[in-house]
Design brief:
GO terms for molecular function: cobalt ion transmembrane transporter activity; magnesium ion transmembrane transporter activity; nickel cation transmembrane transporter activity. The protein is about 60% helix and about 15% strand. With about 325 residues, it is an alpha+beta fold.
Length: about 325
C-alpha cells in the first residue's frame, strides 16, 4: 500500500495510491509505503528514480548499512520504531530514503507514531512544511510514544509491587507477578533499544548538516527527551530486578514451609514407626504374641508417641 502526503493550506493531506498514474498527479513531501508488493516498488522507482529496499533487507544491523548517504545524494536511514500492543510488544524496522524534496518510508505494518504524525499534521496548520519536518516529527513522536510506554511500565510494576508486598503471597500470586515482571522487562528492554536507535539516527542527521536551525533545535530536544527516557529505563530495570528477587524469595519461603511441614511430620511419626516395627517382628519367643491386650496396647502407644511430639512442635511454633 502506498500513501502519499502533500501540503495543502498548511496541512498534511493524505492520498492512497491505487495506480502509478496517481503518483504523477501530485507533488508529495512524504510517501509512506506499507507492506508493498514488487509492482508498487517498481512504481516508486519508475516515477522518482528511488530504489527502496525490500522488507527482507531491513534487518541489516551494520551501522554502515543503516545510516549513509548514497552516490545519488539521497540519505538512507534504517530505524526501529516501538509497537506496544496489549498482547505483545516489538520493534518494527523502518527504512527511510530522504531526497531533496520527498521523504520515502517503507515498513511492513502501520505504526502508532506514524498515525499520530498524520493526525497532528492534518489538525495543526504549519506544523509540517517539508520532508525533513516530517522525518523529525516522526522521531519526536516515537520518543513521545516511548515515554508513554514508560508510564505503562510504571503502572504494571506498581500493580506487581502491591501483590508482592501483600500480607500473604501464595504460589499462584507469585506466578502471576513473575509473568507481569517478565512482560514488563521485555517491554522496558524494547523501549531502551528503540530510543538508543532513535538517538543514533537523530545524531546522524545532526552530523549530516542537512537540517535547518529550527530542525536542529528540535533534534536536540529529541535527544534530551531520550536522555530522560534512558534514565527511567535504567531505574525500571533495577526495580524489576528487586521485584524479581522478592518474588522468588517468597516462592522459596513457601517451598521451605512445605518441606518443614514434611520434616516435622516425619519426625513425629518416627516413635510410632519404631513401636510398630518392634511389635511387628515374628520371632518364635515373643511374650507379647500371646497377650490378649497386646494389639490395643500397641495402638495406644503408637497414638500417644505420635501425639507427644506434635504437641511439643505446636508449642514451639514449628507447625506454622
Amino acid at each position: 500500500m502506498i500513501n502519499l502526503f502533500v501540503v495543502q493550506k498548511g496541512r498534511l493531506a493524505q492520498e492512497q495510491v491505487e495506480e502509478r498514474s496517481e503518483l504523477l498527479q501530485h507533488k508529495p513531501i512524504w510517501i509512506d509505503v506499507i507492506d508493498p508488493d514488487d509492482e508498487e516498488l517498481a512504481w516508486i522507482k519508475e516515477t522518482y528514480g528511488v530504489v527502496l529496499p525490500e522488507l527482507e533487507q531491513l534487518g541489516d544491523l551494520e551501522a554502515s548499512a543503516r545510516y549513509f548517504e548514497g552516490e545519488d545524494g539521497h540519505i538512507h536511514i534504517r530505524t526501529d520504531f516501538l509497537l506496544d500492543e496489549e498482547a505483545t510488544s516489538r520493534n518494527v524496522r523502518v527504512a527511510f530514503v530522504l531526497t531533496k524534496d520527498v521523504l520515502f518510508s517503507i515498513h511492513d505494518e502501520d505504526l502508532p507514531a506514524f498515525r499520530l504524525v498524520r493526525m497532528r499534521a492534518r489538525l495543526r496548520p504549519g506544523s509540517v512544511r517539508n520532508a525533513k519536518d516530517v522525518l523529525m516529527d516522526l522521531y519526536a513522536t516515537d520518543a513521545e510514544y516511548s515515554a508513554d510506554s514508560i508510564e505503562e511500565v510504571y503502572e504494571r510494576l506498581e500493580d506487581a509491587s502491591k501483590r508482592v508486598l501483600a500480607d500473604e503471597v501464595t504460589d499462584a500470586a507469585a506466578a502471576d507477578v513473575l509473568e507481569i515482571i517478565a512482560r514488563v522487562e521485555d517491554l522496558n528492554g524494547r523501549i531502551r533499544r528503540n530510543v538508543m536507535d532513535t538517538r543514533r539516527a537523530v545524531s546522524f542527521l545532526l552530523r549530516s548538516q542537512l537540517l535547518s536551525a529550527d530542525q536542529q533545535d528540535e533534534a536536540r530536544q529529541v535527544l534530551r527527551d531520550i536522555d530522560s527516557i534512558e534514565n527511567h529505563t535504567a531505574f525500571l530495570s533495577d526495580k524489576v530486578n528487586f521485584l524479581m528477587d522478592a518474588t522468588v524469595g517468597f516462592i522459596n519461603i513457601n517451598q521451605n514451609k512445605i518441606i518443614k511441614l514434611f520434616s516435622v511430620v516425619s519426625v513425629a511419626l518416627m516413635p510410632p514407626t519404631l513401636i510398630a516395627s518392634i511389635y511387628g517382628m515374628n520371632f518364635k519367643v515373643m511374650p507379647e504374641l500371646d497377650w490378649a491386650e497386646g494389639y490395643p496396647y500397641a495402638i495406644v502407644m503408637m497414638v500417644v508417641s505420635a501425639a507427644i511430639p506434635l504437641v511439643y512442635f505446636r508449642r514451639k511454633g514449628w507447625l506454622k
